[in-house]
Amino acid sequence: MFSVTILGNNSALPAYNRHPTAQMVHLNEQNILLDCGEGTQMRMLEFKVKRNNLNYIFISHLHGDHYLGLAGLINTLNLTGRSEPLNLFAPPPLEEILRLQFANGNTKLNFDLRFFPLPEEAGPLVETSTFRVSTFLTEHRVTCHGFLIEEIKKPRSIVPEKTQEFGIPFDYYPALQNGADYISEDGELIIPNEILTEEAPLPKSYAYCADSRFTTSFLPYIENADTIYHETTYLDDLREKAESRYHSTTKQAATIATLAHAKQLLIGHFSSMYDDLTPFQLEAASVFPNSIRTQEGETYNI
Amino acid sequence: MFSVTILGNNSALPAYNRHPTAQMVHLNEQNILLDCGEGTQMRMLEFKVKRNNLNYIFISHLHGDHYLGLAGLINTLNLTGRSEPLNLFAPPPLEEILRLQFANGNTKLNFDLRFFPLPEEAGPLVETSTFRVSTFLTEHRVTCHGFLIEEIKKPRSIVPEKTQEFGIPFDYYPALQNGADYISEDGELIIPNEILTEEAPLPKSYAYCADSRFTTSFLPYIENADTIYHETTYLDDLREKAESRYHSTTKQAATIATLAHAKQLLIGHFSSMYDDLTPFQLEAASVFPNSIRTQEGETYNI
């Protein structure tokens, strides 16, 4: 499973029952929160998104609408008995803000909140045998991080009928999964790998482009991502306003998805100027057909 | 007008669509926010409580469920063009927390946010010709402030038919309003004040007791308050739990209202243990009949 549930898709001002930015990515057993605007824990309750099996939190930047729900969420995890460590990647100053908040509330966390300050350059943040999270920089009014979440390519999978048919010993399996042909000890029997194994499903990836004005500067980091989330604060007639506020428009987001050869574009971070969001869908799709205007509470497959 | 609108009446964990503590007091032209839990600005939108004519904010203590909505609310006031000063009374460390949040978000406030650190003792905070706000200390796990909001007794009001009938000069009015009898210049005509003026309505007062375990220590400060808000985190069978967590029960809150000779008791800060709140109403009223189990979005006259 690789999907993302939208918890908040509005820009800074809450409006029309839309809320500040937060997304929960589900990647097999991993639950990864991207940004945590005010009220994220209430959205989790509303949409029945479990908060307790959260593994990672990534905060893109220190504008309030992207992190002001964090202290409350952590308090709640603490009050509800969390004991597992929680990994938090965020801009460095957030550590002191949280420290002051917990110290002055006389709050002792009963779990290990591991704070990892985000570097001011692109690079990998987490890498396990099954997935990788990297960061890249967007162009915003303050330092802002995008995140790329990638499945790691799985080894080839054994075709049991074939390995049984040819009597391949078990200790040969790891080599087969890594692509080796089978060669019997006496060198007599050679069976090509493609007969004994199958290609694993292609790994997928999700690029979360956080807040940014239109720029191709981070394209190299998101190229070929299956799904891209890109902010679209404004409709395309407000390009100048978008540029001056370091935000993007529908067609700009769709252009990024096109240039990156994405398969799917999710858009969000809508300005509170707009009640009806239909034009967002139409404008984005006019440039990149598989554009999806996100809705809070909805889950999208990557 | 002297009333209070409940924006949030739950304890730390949001539950059953109840939210962390916040109340808006309307006192004639003054709009006074008491505490500001996470999501307060969203509750204001939901309940159509105007945020722009806010004059004062008082924060009782630095547990997250009483102030984590503040930075977001201030951001929103700033984004929506507020220019009038805003007076914020709060525990001293909040100033640095907010400073860090605004500095790292590169947020320049376009209005004057006047921070007044709360003293660690009881005393007056604001006094104008029409109202006074004082603080007192409750007994909680961290320093916690209650607030008493009092109307100032208005001068007696002139009865125009009578002052005309007796031909009282205008420049005599202020003395009449302060209770003086009328004595004509030659000393011949003496008219008792009670004929020329009427008593102003009695000033009312609201005592907000924030978070506290049961204690009579602050009774002297809230005695004879017309309406008292007192927290009731638990039903009365959980007295020991309440005591150990520095919280109160229904009957304890009602006892305070009785001892203070209040006319009305509002209860809130309900634990997320409870879905049905009917027993809160019944238990409190069994001790203090005019107890009201508050509901979010409702406005109560003081």
TrEMBL record, chains A, B:
Indicate which residues the UniProt annotation says bind Zn(2+) 1: H61, H63, H140, D211
Which reaction(s) does the protein catalyse, per the Swiss-Prot or TrEMBL entry? Endonucleolytic cleavage of RNA, removing extra 3' nucleotides from tRNA precursor, generating 3' termini of tRNAs. A 3'-hydroxy group is left at the tRNA terminus and a 5'-phosphoryl group is left at the trailer molecule
UniProtKB keywords = Endonuclease, Hydrolase, Metal-binding, Nuclease, tRNA processing, Zinc
Please tell me whether the keyword Nucleotide-binding is annotated for this protein.
no
Q: Which cofactor does it need?
A: Zn(2+)
InterPro entries in UniProt: RibonucZ/Hydroxyglut_hydro, RNase_Z/BN
> What residues make up the catalytic site?
D65
Residue ranges that the Swiss-Prot or TrEMBL entry lists as coiled coil: none
User: Which SUPFAM superfamilies does the entry mention?
Assistant: Metallo-hydrolase/oxidoreductase (SSF56281)
Q: Which Pfam families match?
A: Anti-Pycsar_Apyc1
Q: What does the note under cofactor report?
A: Binds 2 Zn(2+) ions.
Superkingdom of the organism of origin = Bacteria
Q: What is its EC number?
A: 3.1.26.11
Q: List GO molecular-function terms, semicolon-separated.
A: 3'-tRNA processing endoribonuclease activity; zinc ion binding
Per the record, the similarity remark reads: Belongs to the RNase Z family.
What is the protein name for this chain?
Ribonuclease Z
Record the organism: Rhizosphaericola mali
The taxonomic lineage of its organism, from the top, reads: Bacteria, Pseudomonadati, Bacteroidota, Chitinophagia, Chitinophagales
